[in-house]
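re: that chain from earlier
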Amino acid sequence: MRLIFGGDWVTDEAATLDDQLRALHAGAAEVELDGAGIRRLDSTGAWLLLRTKRQLEETGIKVSAFSFPPGYAPLFEALEREPPSHGGPPHLRRPFTDLLERVGRGALEFFHQAYRLLGFLGRVTVETSEAFVRPDRELPWPSFVNQIEETGVTALPIVGLLGFLLGVVLAYQGADQLRRFGAEIFTVNLVGVSMLREVGCLITAIVVAGRSGSAFTAQIGTMKLNQEVDAMQTIGLNTVEILVLPRLLGLVVALPLLTFFANIMGLIGGAVMCYFHLGITVPAFLRQLHDALTLSSWSFWLGLIKAPVFAFLIALVGCFEGLRVEGNAGSVGRQTTRSVVESIFLVIVFDAGFSILFSLLRI
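^ sequence. v structure.
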């Protein structure tokens, strides 16, 4: 039997062609497939032809000849390399056991990720120590200064605006609650202590994680996708020293300065709200703020102490996820999302740890 195919074998005709092919019954032991007369052909039509050929062979019919329009050989070769897909047995829905399986997989992935991140931390620690100890190795100082500018100077507007608005919100909400007890003046204490101890540093770290941490992952991930990282390793360059250390050290320097700036802007926002909402003048605000910080003398320094730790975590996770990019551009997006989520998660976890530690130390 000789089957002659013609016309258009494209996606728009796929449904009709599929019905006709499924209704085909070859009553011969040997079949020739002649598609030389096909006018238009795309991957869908080619797949239908190959499926017909495979189905005939699976039923014991010999396909003695298989021809197609010239010029489409690479398409058929690519499709023939794909293994035939066979639908497996239907998945039985078991809500409870499926939930347990997802929880188990998530927990296992969490511990694997923590283990890989801990290994990367050890590698960065060793490389940083060698860069400062060994005289034959020198840090790329121009890149370090550039990272301070990229992560610090260019972030001043957004950090300052958020700090100012948070100061306004804290003063407004605090005043509404304290007015019930006739203690509006303590709104200054609330704004000052909360901004300096917690809010200023935390919101700055979250903004930097979404801004600079994601940028680290995207930059390094794109370099890895373009095989630039592989080229650097091939010529003997230390990728951690060149790509990771300048970003890490630059952010460790920039984030405390950004935190200080956010604190000042938050206090200014609180002072503005106290003046217009409560009638507290700027000199009165400063006197009350001085008294509040005198009672809690560590408030100013606690946020600045936490800032370098948060910066280290953000840069470490951002560079780590960037070096894990592989495959395609979609991997860059996935790893960038993971970088932001993991950075913010670690920042909040460590902030809670710091709060407990400072409470135990009574500072």
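Residues 118-361 form one domain.
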